Amino acid sequence: MTYNAIELMICAAANALEDNKLVVVGTGIPCAVAMLAQRTHAPNLTIMFEAGGVAPILPTMPISVGDSRTFHRGIMATSMAEIMQFCQRGMVDYTFLGGAQIDAYGNLNSTVIGDYERPKVRLPGSGGACDLASFCWRTLVVTKHDRRRFAKRLDFLTTPGYLTGPGAREAAGLPPNTGPYRVITDLAVMGFHPQSKRMQVLSLHPGVSWDMVAAATEFELHWADTPVQTPAPTAEQLAILREEVDPHRYILGRALA
Amino acid sequence: MTSLAGRGELFVDPSTRLCREAFAAKSRSLTPKLTSVAQAVRELIHDGDYLAIGGFGTNRIPTSVAHEILRQGKQNLSFAGHTATHDFQILAAGNLTGRGRTLARVDSAYIVGLEARGLSPHARRVMESGDVVVTEWTNYALAVRLQAAAMGVPFLPSKTMLGTDTFERSAARVIECPFTKERLVALPALSPDVAAIHVHESDVYGNCRIRGTTVADLDLARAARRVIVTCERLIPHEEIRREPHLTSIPFFCVDAVCEVPFGSYPGNMPGEYFSDERHLKQWLEAEKTIEDHQKFLEHFIFSSRDFTEYLDKCGGLRRMQELRQQEWLLQHRSVGTPAGGDRV
To answer: Which tens digits make up the pLDDT trace of A127-157?
Structure first.
């Protein structure tokens, strides 16, 4: 069965989510990931949105992290502070983030490109990203893989990954045992080395070579001990994704920006 | 390693004494506060004020107040931007458009962008020009700063922003917990001079009901020194007394009540109408050139007497009816989709 890059990324990310957990998602791909996981191996995965929506039964893709869909037939519509406090006190397992730049330690930039004082591009800033990546147990990043994005040096560290390496999160005062968990791109699935905390390739997507990944990454990237091929989406995953999760192809039909 | 103090500017003194003095002077009388948006903005928002706007993104926002601020040419405002999208885009139209400078200082958590719809070209022009002084925060940090002011304390501790440039450009401080010695980030109380909040229902006194997510608005209503409420519909005071558990903002927090049906348009209002993605796309498109933007603003805002006239220009009742059906998923297939590219 043929599939496109976005479908593969969504399936690969969904495979990383366990059942009976809490996840804070945004709109777009992360939302599709959580919906797919709920409809396959994780029926008791609870979705939350940072503006206050808890456990919606999503009738369609939300457009905003705070629109009515984010609490449609949910169990609670609450405040932003409360969602963040579920995270801060250690109840939320996963969150999904993106960013204009990511470095080898999984730190993210969504604030400026160029110099902070007179930026080439002013981006939105943290929003809730810095909060979620500080508080949630595991942060997943879903992004397009290119050299500009996978940068040796961030122009601005908006959101903490492993900061400068082993022990840095804890030294800064962030909760122990938290941090980036998976980076899922159109080329590969990456994790972080347990000691060095540097990003490493766990699996290459079908048809992708090591050279392609290395060429699309500005920093030095290593293999995990036993690199494998990312499983192709199953027929069941694709059917659910196309027929139930995003029948209008709002997300599946987009080009990767 | 994180330094111990962010070097961003703190725009509002968090001292509880100042807050208490302001709240001591606030009226507690149960008097009708019904007024027009123009009057409320004229009397309650002054040049140089610190302004905060309720809602999240394009959801449950007091659009009419933002328009009126532009029309009245308010100057040098400070602004709290926790996922401020279309409201920020409107206010930014008062900078670099030959109308002085509406925004002078911004506490930013999320500005410039409109979530999945993309970045606002004009808000980018403003923020990249150096015309506005910015201090960085996060959505949670701003929510907690409002919560601290609502609680009447000068700061609250948190575990956000540690180790980041966001902290370096904030005005927060790292402190040590007196009990556990943990590193914490102290977030200074934020008591805005004035807040504008859009709600579903209010009586003439300002007792308000909100349906759906409350974002940071309950704290905002308590933290701000003056509060302008716009509501979808006025309801009788007796209705408030019949079901007091539904009231989430009491009258003594509120200074003005304006009835503005479809007041969150082109944003979404939970249970009422969905966002008008077509209009929001048109707005982003118009901002691409300064000339088109000027024409767009002239047509939709400056030549409109009030919000009702703006709604008429956007398709009036017929369009509102479509958006109401979209909110209730009655025309499932026509539900709007974001215009911009994917954010991944």
So the answer is: 999 999 999 999 999 999 999 999 999 999 9
A16 touches chain B (CB under 8 A): no
User: What whole-number percentage of chain B has pLDDT above 70?
Assistant: 95
Q: How far is B42 from chain A (nearest CA, A)?
A: 30
CA distance A224 to chain B (A): 24
- Between CA A254 and CA B338 the distance in angstroms is 11
Cα atoms found within 13 Å of the Cα of residue B340, Cβ hemisphere only: 21
pLDDT at B344: 30
Kindly calculate the radius of gyration of chain B based on its CA atoms and give it in whole angstroms: 20
**Distance from B183 to chain A by nearest Cα, in Å?**
5
User: Is the preceding peptide bond at B266 cis, omega within 30 degrees of 0?
Assistant: yes
A46-48/A22-24 β-pairing: parallel
CATH number of A5-245: 3.40.1080.10
Please report residues of A whose CB lies closer than 8 A to that of B128.
118-122
Spatial neighbors of A55 by CB under 8 A, at least 6 apart, are: A46, A47, A48, A74, A75, A76
Active site residue A50: yes
Angle between helices A29-39 and A5-15 (to 10 degrees): 60
- What percent of chain A clears pLDDT 90, i.e. is strictly above it? 90
Q: Which of A10, A43, A34 is closest to A234 using CA atoms?
A: A10
Query: What distance in Å separates the CA atoms of residue B146 and residue B215, rounded to the nearest whole number?
Result: 11
Say if CB A63 and CB B281 are below 8 A apart: no
pTM for the full model? 0.96
Residues 6+ apart with CB under 8 A from A255: B341, B342
Going from N- to C-terminal start, the domains of chain A cover 5-245
The mean pLDDT of A165-183, rounded to a whole number, is 97
ipTM for this model? 0.97
Q: Which domains does chain B have, with CATH numbers?
A: 17-333 (3.40.1080.10)
Q: CB–CB of B213 and A172 under 8 A?
A: no
What HEC string does chain A produce? CCCCHHHHHHHHHHHCCCCCCEEECCCCHHHHHHHHHHHCCCCCCEEECCCCEECCCCCCCCCCCCCHHHHCCCCEECEHHHHHHHHHCCCCCEEEECCCEECCCCCEECCEECCCCCCCEECCCCCCHHHHHHHCCEEEEECCCCCCCECCCCCCCCECCCCCCCCHHHHHCCCCCCEEEEEECCCEEEEECCCCCCEEEEEECCCCCHHHHHHCCCCCCEEEEEEEECCCCCHHHHHHHHHHHCCCCCCCCCCCC
Tens digit of pLDDT for each residue in B238-252? 999 999 999 999 999
Q: Which of A50, A82, A236, A243 is labelled catalytic?
A: A50
